[in-house]
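Dear support,

I submitted the protein below through the web form. The confirmation email said the job was done, but the results page showed an empty box. After a refresh the structure appeared. I'm attaching both so you can tell me whether what I see now is the final result or a partial one.
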Amino acid sequence: MPTQWKGLNTKMTYKDFVNRPLRLKRRVEHKIEDVQLKWTICQSATANMDGERVQGSTQNRTENSTLRYIDAKRELDELAGELEESRDAVRSFFYDNLSERDADILEWRYIGGRNLQEIAEIVGVEYQTIKNRMSEANRTASYKYQLLVDKM
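What the results page shows now:
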């Protein structure tokens, strides 16, 4: 199995494999919001100290908010790395197993998150043409995915 397809595994269906980048993207977006909130809380806790050395519960709240921010940022970095690996695996799979035209269409859909109407406009064809093309490309990709999984 080529190393660029390390996202492939025998427990993951084709549908799970190609939808993983968009699911991870949504998780990254939520984690970004979480990190921003924790950063705001951290700044607020630090601002309340106004440069004075404090002890007790105020110091603990400041330390706790800082630690929560650091943990959330670390989780975000890990998720972002996982997202990039997933995108690379899906993109490589498409371009190694499909025509460039079909790979482009599936990449725009599953990695770029575009809907069929947007893809039809990019390609310059009717919606139904893209819908049919996508259906056929998915059948081919699903078949080739299953062949690869069966070899594992």
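Response: this is the final, complete result; the empty box was a page-load delay. The mean pLDDT is 85.
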